[in-house]
Design a protein that fits this description.
Blueprint lengths: L4 H31 L3 H32 L2 H22 L2 H29 L5 H37 L9 H19 L19 H14 L1 H30 L4 H25 L5 H21 L3 H29 L2 H33 L2 E2 L6 E2 L1 H24 L7 H10 L13 E7 L5 H14 L4 E5 L5 H12 L6 H25 L3 E5 L2 H11 L4 H12 L6 E6 L2 H10 L14 H17 L4 E5 L4 H20 L16
Parallel strand pairs: 3-5, 3-6, 4-5, 6-7
Antiparallel strand pairs: 1-2
Helix pairs in contact: 1-2, 1-4, 1-5, 1-6, 2-4, 2-7, 2-12, 3-4, 3-6, 4-12, 5-9, 5-11, 8-9, 8-10, 8-11, 8-12, 8-13, 9-11, 10-11, 10-13, 12-13, 15-22, 16-17, 17-19, 18-19, 18-21
Bound molecules: thymidine-5'-diphosphate.
Length: 672
Amino acid sequence: MLKTTPFRRLWYCTGLSSLGDWLGLLATTALATQLATGYQAQNYALGLVLVVRLLPSAILGPLAGAFADRFDRRRTMVITDLLRFLLFLAIPIWHTLPVLYVATFLIESIGLFWNPAKDASVPNLVRKEQIEAANQLSLITTYGLTPVAAAALFSVLALVSKALADRIPFFATNQVGLALYFNAGTFLVGAITVYFIKEISGQRGVPAGESQPSLWWMLRDGARFVRTTGLLRGLILGILGAFAAGGAVIGAAKTYVKSLGGGDAAYGMLFGTVFVGLGLGMAFGPRVAREVSRRRLFGLCIVFAGVCLSLTAIVPHVTLAMITVLGVGFGAGVGYLAGVTLLGSEIEDEMRGRIFAFIQSMVRVVMILALAAVPVLVGTIGQRRIPGIGGTVDGTRIVLFTAGILAALAGIVAYRQMDDRGHVPVLADLLTSLRGDSSGRRRLHSGGILIAFEGGEGAGKSSQIDLLADALRSDGNTVVVTHEPGATPVGKQIRKLLLDTEGPIAPRSEALLFAADRAHHVATIIRPALDRGEVVITDRFVDSSLAYQGAGRTLSTEDIKRVSRWATEDLVPDLTVLLDVPAEVGLARVQGRANEGGPDRLEREALAFHERVRQGFRHLAESDPDRYLVLDATRPIDELAETIRIAARGVLGSRRLPAKAGYPPPGERVRR
Ligand code: TYD
């Protein structure tokens, strides 16, 4: 992915900006304690810096997101980086607490505009299937690489400025100054880099001539979208649950570690372990849970993290606590990545900025609440004697345990809101995934095989289907032959509407009718047969819609793909045989069949339509060569049949002998 130049540059910026952020956090907290005197005052000063950092997003978050959707993202990013550059310079120059607070507040506020602009532009720089990897990379960069790098850099800079203090008096009173100057520099470099990534602004802006919607309208629109979309409600609930639990952990951590008999070192180790877990989750989670639907994965991870947190609350020893805390981090890491990926791939470009920002600000609000509430709660609960156990139980344990349970509940509710695979038991989903069968979700159901035949009019699909079915049956397979549209009683009525209607049908309506037929076909014929482990051969499938309604009617292929995915619940054939025939030849063949009561509505379409359809099919095959067998349908029937047989047996063979993937070389027969 880093080969994509614009993305690579954006990645540098993300890394740099995040390095700046972490370094800034370390430097400003250090500076706050330096500028205040007395233990209590130092702690208050430090706490205030943290609150000031979290506050802006609570207030400004949604506004910033609408901004990212409305204004040129590149310009937004360049300007915000320049402003942050100046503000970071201001802190060491003025060197007072008030300036520190104000600058920190402003820097954070400005970061709110930078982040959604950055997040929302990633999907424009990479292909859709790369979004997850892209998110993974930037999350690992932000929460794995840069915090460590920033900590190291901070120590080095502190040493350097100490050394310089002898010669230049400025550094004697200003030990963190160097870190802050460096920090300012990262934003300057960031601004320059983004300036040269022209692709970021690529798809932005409302087309000229259309009036721009107001910010307020966009905000309301975004809020309505959140309210009415189950996926989002689930996502938001899960993310908030996870972060509330996270806030509880941070708020309770010190006292908790004490209750385990640990000191500062143990505290540091536990804290580090959470980050290690997060990193591991983000890095390996998607690989471990390859085939589990992202929507399910998300809820499951939150539940997992919640349960681990509750366990953390009851373990008696630091070593055990490290294991459970690792689990908390891991669950949160996988869940966060799955969540961000879902947002990136399922939410339209014009909404994304607002949604990202909305979530980020909600997250901060929840964190502030948790951070504020937990110490109070812990203090109120105090240490209690629990009857029956004998010993005393620390207040933190009760709070942590409850937080874990609440997070798990949020995960369950999120799971239910988002589940897209209600008919597949979740355990089967998980087990198949862990077994590492990478051949697609449908395998979860069975060892069945789906073969689709596609092609224009008069390509000779039916004859080839009959020949293949006979051959596979004589091999001892149970074969179901079916077709679209109209293989079911409901489908027959839809087919009548589609093909026998006299006048034209609106293209979208036509596409939806084919999809409706297909959804019923998959649910009542194809899936049950696959679940029984049978071979299903279908005359036409999703690709027909992509070619006829997409290329033929010139609807957006993306839209049709999305509708089809939804209609079939992501069912993809194991093999698609494309019988390719020039449009004139095919149409002439069809017209030769005098016995079928004349051409139907689609056969009557112009030659140009059918030529587009043919090109549509060929284009589909080219973009996924592994799944297609493209054949010149003007070749002799027997020859074609032989080639198709070999390919089909190849797929069946590779299924049953997992070691032999792919098709056999032409001419070689696979013995079952
Ligand atoms: P049918 O008589 O079954 O066609 P054929 O013998 O050519 O396979 O009629 C199906 C017609 O419907 C055919 O012209 C292709 C068209 N069609 C679509 O336009 N979209 C689709 O999704 C499907 C399945 C078929």
